[in-house]
Amino acid sequence: MLFGRTEEINRLNEYYDGTGNSLVMLYGRSNIGKTALIREFIKGKKAFYYNSALASEKEQIELLAENMISAGLVEDYEYEGIKELASDDTYAQYAHLLKNTAKIDSDTKLIVIEEFQNIVKNNKNFMAVIDDLVRGKFYNDKVMVIVTSSSVSWVENSMVSAIGNHAMAISTFIKLKELTFVDIVRMFPHHSVLDDMVIYAVTGGVPGYLCQFSDRLTLRDNIVTNVLKNGTMLRSAGSDYIKEELRETSLYNTILYCISSGENKLNELHAHTGFGRDKISVYLKNLIEREVVEKIYSYDYGGKEYTKKGLYRIKSGFTEFWFRFIYPNESQLNILEPEEFYDKYIAQYIYGFAKEAFVKVGTEFIQLLDSMNRLEIKISRMGRWWGKQGDIDIIACDTDDKYLVGKCNWDSETFTFMMFEELMLNVAQAGVGSDYIYLFSKDTFDDELRSFAKDNANVKLISLKEL
C-alpha cells in the first residue's frame, strides 16, 4: 500500500485525464519514493518506462533502444536505421526512437523517463526531442511525459540553465517530500504512539528507509535488525547519501558530526574542525542545497538582544541518527553484537533523540488545522524563536498581527505550569503576541496548568496520544 501520496497521484491524474500534452517534472531525494509513486500511477495504464543509466551517449541510446524493443515499440530493423544515422546526430537518434511512442496502445501516450539528468548532463539534444514530442511535432495524439530526478540540488539550481528554453515545455513541478507522522502511525499500527514518534525521528519520514522497518518487530529489534546488522541497506545509508551527492566526504562527515554533537554555530565548527570559516561556509552551502543541513533563524520581530543567531541543524532525520550514534562508535559496532551495541550506545538516548521530531509534529498539526480552516487565525507567516534562555517552538501570525505560539515538551513526562510561565517569559523577550497558545506534551499536564487552561479558552493542551 502506498501511504501519503494521494495528492501527488491526483495531480498526475489531472494531467493524464486533462486536455493537451504535458511534461511533468517529478523530483526528490533518493529513497523518497518516486519509483513507487510512478508504479502506482501507471497501474492499469499503457505506458513506456525507461530508467536512464549513468552511461555514455552511445550506450544510453542503445539501452533506450533495447528497452523500446522489449516494450514492442521498436522493431529490430528500425534500430538498425538508427545505426545508419550520423554518430554525432544524437537529436536524430533520440527523435527516431521516441517517435515510436505513437505505438503505445492508449489515447494518451504515457512516457516515463526516470533520472533523466543522466541523459541531459551528457546530451543537450535530448530535451530538444522531449520538447518537440510534447509540442506535438512528431504525431498528433495526446502525450504525457514524466521525467524524474533524485538530484534535488541540480533540479533547483542548475537544470534551467542546463536545458535552456526547453524548460518552458515543463507543465508542472512535483517535489516529493518526506511522509508525515500521521503516515507513520498508519504504517505501524502495532507500535505505541511513542515508538512511532521515534521511528519518525530515526527515518526522517523517508519511504525508502521506512520500508526497511517492520510493524511486527519492536523498536529495538527494528533498529538492531535493519540498521545495525552488516549487509543491511541502512547500515551505511547515512554516509552513502553524502557520498552520492558530494566529494570530499571526510570533510563533510567532520562537519556533520560536529553539528550532530550540538556544535551548531559557525565559530564552534571553526574551533572544532580547524577549517577556515569561508571553507566551512562553502561546505554548509552545499549541504543546505542538498537538504541535508538547514540554517535556522529566529523569528525576526523583536527582542534581538535575547536571540541566538545563525544556527545550523541537520535536517535529514536518518543522517542525524547515523552521525549521532553510528559514526563516532563504528569501531565498537564492528566488534560488538548488534544487540550489545544498541543496549550500550543507543537504548538510553533513543527516546530523547525524538525531541526535534516532536516539534516538527506539533508544527505539522498546526499547519493541518490551518489548511482545514480550523485554526483561530489564518497563518500568513510561521517560524520558531531560539532564545538565550529558552525557545519558542512554534510562532504563527496572521495579517492582523494576531499571534499563535506553541511549546512542545518532550524532555519530561509532565508539562508543568512553571514551564508555561517560562514560555510566557520567552514570548515577552521575543516581542511577539500570545493571543492563542498551544501546548504539546509527550505525556500529561499538571493540575495547575489544566485548571488554568480550563479558565482560559485561548490555551490548548494536547498530549502525544491525542495527536
Structure described in brief:
Helices cover 46% and strands 16% of the residues. With 467 residues, the chain is an alpha/beta fold. Helix 3 runs parallel beside helix 5.
What would the keywords be for this entry?
467 residues, alpha/beta, Rossmann fold, Arc Repressor Mutant, subunit A, Trna Endonuclease, Chain: A, domain 1, 3 domains, 5-stranded parallel beta sheet, 14 strands, 46% helix
Strand content: 15-25%
Question: What's the overall geometry?
Answer: globular
> In which order are the strands of the major sheet placed?
2-3-4-1-5
CATH class of the largest domain: Alpha Beta
- CATH fold description of the largest domain: Rossmann fold
Uncertain regions spanning at least 5 consecutive residues = none
Helix content: 40-55%
State the domain count. 3
Overall mean confidence score, pLDDT: 91
CATH superfamily of the largest domain: P-loop containing nucleotide triphosphate hydrolases
Number of helices: 23
Major sheet details: 5 strands, parallel
How many E-type strands?
A: 14
**SS content category:** alpha/beta
Query: What is the CA-CA span between the terminal residues?
Result: 23 Å
CATH architecture of the largest domain: 3-Layer(aba) Sandwich
Cα-based radius of gyration, to the nearest Å: 26 Å
